[in-house]
Amino acid sequence: MVTFYDNFIPSLKDGEYTIKVSQSLVVNTGQTNIDGGNPDVTTPPQADLSQKFIVRGSRFTLNPTDIHRAFPPNNTTGLYDEYLPMVVFNKRSLPWERELDLSPSQIQGLPSGLQDPGLYPWVALLVFSGDELIIPQPASGPAPDPPQGSQTNPTRSASFALNNVVNSTFDGTQTAGPPPGILGPTIGLEDDEDPNTIFCNVIDIAADTFAQLIPTLNDLRFLAHVRQVSTVNKEPLANMPHDGWFSTAIANRFSVPPPTANGTAGQRNIAHLVSLEGLEPFLGVGTPLPVSGFQKVRLVSLYSWTFTCLHDPVENFRQVMLNLISTQSEMGTDLLLRMPLPESALPAQPGIPSYVATKLQNGYAPLSYATRTGEQTFAWYRGPLAPVIAPTFLDTIDPAQPDDPAAPLNVSEAMVYDPATGLFEQSYAVAFQTGRSLALANQVFATNLLQWRRSAHGAVDLLMEYMSSPNWNGILKQNNVLGANRTLVNIGVGDLAELLNTNIVSRAFKNFLATDFYDSVAKHVGKTGGFDPSDANTLLTSVVEQPPVVPADLAQLMQQPVVVSLLHHLSGIETLGSTASVLSGTVTSIPLQSPGVTEALSVGNSVAIVSPDGKTTVIVAVASAAALGDPQIQILPFSFLNAMPSGSSVQLTGSPILPEQVITWLANIALLNNVPFNNLVPNMQMLQQECIRFFYIDQNWIDALIDGALSIGIQSSRDSLFQQLMREALHAAVDEALTEVRDTLRGVSSSGVPTQEGTRAGFILRSVVVSSIPGLEIRAWSATDSVNPMKMLRLDRLAPNIMIAIFPDIPVKLEFNEPSEGLVFGYEDEGVALRYLPGTKGATTANIGSVINPDTPTWLTQSQIQQLKRDQPANQPPLIIAGNNGLVQALQNIFADPQPELTPASLAVEMVRVPEQMLFLPANADGKADMSAVAQVPKK
């Protein structure tokens, strides 16, 4: 969807301003006489204070990053004579940032209600044929020849100092200006614009050509507008001050075609975005003005490009997209990312496929491999982008086992050996090493990862210290929390986390002073009685000597389920559950601050919160909880949490010990950001010029990549055990974070679009369409939701002409659309079909912009459009836009009553060429998503 606006005029335009501050004393004579004062008192005048400041913006040069797109694309060839060239800016206010200095007579000649000079752009897009431009010459002598071997001047421009371009005064000195006979801009330079040090690009054109091509002021207003589009389905766009906002400058001349209808060489067109500042006296209001007394006009060129116009189409969106599915592009791959194979290499008999052909069909490439013993051989390699769905086998089998065969701890364990052929498959070994290399290269990630391990080890060490302490050991056993061999029983994660609270001792001491100490000691101070030595002997003899702690004890403690859950909870990668669904009873709302915990079950004075797996129970004492006599609910008697009123806030843990940057960074590499391209596509034969290849994500490769990143800094078996215990929950946390990566890159909050979960898939596109049409809009639908498009996980350029997209599920429909902000202007073969506008007959909020009566449209025909042009030049004269004989009036006249009054935005709606779309339908005969069977339907 795109919304058009007439303009976007900034509150303060570019230029030099002066602020003056003055004050004066005025005597209230009447009141002064009443008060008995002297009304004749005067004050000496005070000098005004002034301060100059400059609002800086583009003037003689344009920042290349301000250009979003030019059409027709630079250096392309195509059927462009039905299009009005245009340039799209990333800044929504750029065409109106400076104000033209119009004379009073010019302003009075403008239409009523449109006499504000700020409504008229200060730039214009001019289109020339090659012979209409004159290469500018320096003030004295001819231009030097270009260096040997350099390219010729494609846009026929030159770079000069402002001193030889503009007529102005700087620091009391008059500029030299252009050579005699050449009209240049007459402007006022700002205080810091030294004409001898500022250079700009200029073009020279004949005075007659200037008068023939330059738009009138009435036309100029219609040749720029603003567009607002959604960027949800686009690659992240750089240099966007305002997300989704663009401005556009449009030429008043259609692309110049070859002089003969059957010409095959094509006509080179040169487009220049020029500044009109300083040339206002030569801008006509409704008709062009002649330029008298000059042979040439020198214009400041802010941006330029070239393209070639043919009578037969060669390169446009439709043709380029159709080339992607041609037999030459497909090359027997079914548009899947794998090596192209001739028919002779395919299995001769479907039931007995050859080993090599099967490997190649599955996306593997043979790469040279030097073994550790020095042997030179080859190994099979496939990146994460696979043409087939790979069964997942790198999942954790048993997190409690330190030697899980499915979770590689080093590169060697990630190798796959085929004893039948004696060959290695190095795919996952490469993934593991890639993750490790990326992690080692990122100091922030590596530091946070090591700090997380230290914090987790510290928490386990503290628990072991409590369990080994003579005093705590007795208390834990007395409350039936500590069993044999230091096994924790009858305790939940909340209570276990409370043991790690640094205030637990001070809080317990305060409770003791207020309760037991008061009852046993303070109340008896000064009363009969005294110290009994036998009590002290009892305390001394009750101390039990604890066996020393050995590494095996720490390993055993780490593997206890409640401790594993505690480490997950402290790290913030696993919550305690959102409801107490395992138990039955009355739900009491308690605002727990622990992530994911919002409700609890209450019985008597206690509350039980149970995780979805039923293993973790947290006890919170609540003084006024509702009573419930359900014998099936087990309330554990042990809790370190204080009693509190119902509705009080409970903080089970502090900040997670696992920094958020770790999860975010892992989610980025899980979407293959920063992964070397040759790891994604090992052989460029898989991705030749002008092709699209679909793929499934091999989750094993992603798991190995993450495991490699997490393997850095492992120094002991304890580190290895910790990684094994955290692996499953950590991988799940990374999967959850994938949906936020793209939103973060785009600088927007989560869009709220649900993300489908399934087999991740996508495409990789190598084509000129990526570089020549930035902002392609791509939508994909999954089999589970045919209405709402999927929220993409990734859409990026890997190179100027290579794009990658990753979806959360296999798409059953995939759309490529021309960008809304890059919608081009021109006419169809029949002409311009009328579209609904606000206020036109039959218009609704739903059909604005749609063709009126699409079965029998009302056309402004090609022949009628040709009659709306100026007389000169002979080959493709400019359009007349405004006025009685212009395009705007001609369109208004064929509307049914009530006829609309066209504005720049509504004219843009009418003149937009129907955007083209490429539709891929990857589905098999069963209707299930299958990227290997792709049907293509190109359409408009």
Structural features, described:
Strands 5, 8, 9, 12, 13, 16 and 17 form a 7-stranded mixed beta sheet that branches. This protein folds into 6 domains: 45 residues, no CATH class; 234 residues, no CATH class; 319 residues, no CATH class; 75 residues, no CATH class; 80 residues, no CATH class; 85 residues, no CATH class. The C terminus is likely disordered. It has 940 residues and is of the alpha+beta class. It has 24 helices and 37 strands. The protein starts with a strand and ends with a strand. 24% of the residues lie in helices and 20% in strands.
Which features characterize this protein?
single chain, 940 residues, alpha+beta, 6 domains, seven-stranded mixed beta sheet, five-stranded antiparallel beta sheet, 24 helices, globular, disordered C terminus
What percent of residues are in strands? 15-25%
Give the termini separation: 15 Å
Q: Please work out how many helical segments DSSP would assign.
A: 24
> Which oligomeric form is depicted?
single chain
What's the structural domain tally? Answer: 6
Largest sheet: 7 strands, mixed
**Average pLDDT rating:** 80
How many beta-strand runs? 37
**Portion in helices:** 10-25%
Shape: globular
Low-confidence stretches: 538-542, 576-654, 933-940
- Helix-strand makeup class: alpha+beta
CA-based gyration radius: 38 Å
Short description:
Helices cover 24% and strands 20% of the residues.
Topology:
Blueprint: E1 2-5, E2 15-21, H1 29-34, E3 49-55, E4 67-71, E5 77-78, E6 83-84, E7 86-89, H2 104-109, E8 123-129, E9 158-161, E10 169-170, E11 173-174, E12 182-183, E13 199-206, H3 207-213, H4 217-220, E14 224-229, E15 245-250, E16 267-275, E17 296-309, H5 317-323, H6 327-330, H7 355-361, E18 365-370, E19 376-381, E20 385-386, E21 416-418, E22 423-425, H8 427-440, H9 443-468, H10 470-478, H11 493-499, H12 504-514, H13 516-520, H14 533-541, H15 551-558, H16 561-571, E23 587-588, E24 600-603, E25 606-610, E26 617-621, H17 660-670, H18 677-680, E27 691-697, H19 699-710, H20 717-746, E28 761-766, H21 768-772, E29 777-782, E30 794-799, E31 802-807, E32 811-817, E33 825-826, E34 831-833, E35 859-861, H22 862-866, H23 887-893, H24 904-911, E36 917-923, E37 929-939
Parallel strand pairs: 5-17, 12-17
Antiparallel strand pairs: 1-14, 2-3, 4-7, 6-33, 7-15, 8-16, 9-13, 10-11, 13-17, 14-15, 16-17, 18-19, 20-27, 21-22, 23-24, 24-25, 25-26, 27-28, 28-31, 29-32, 30-31, 32-36, 34-35, 36-37
Helix pairs in contact: 8-19, 9-16, 11-16, 17-20
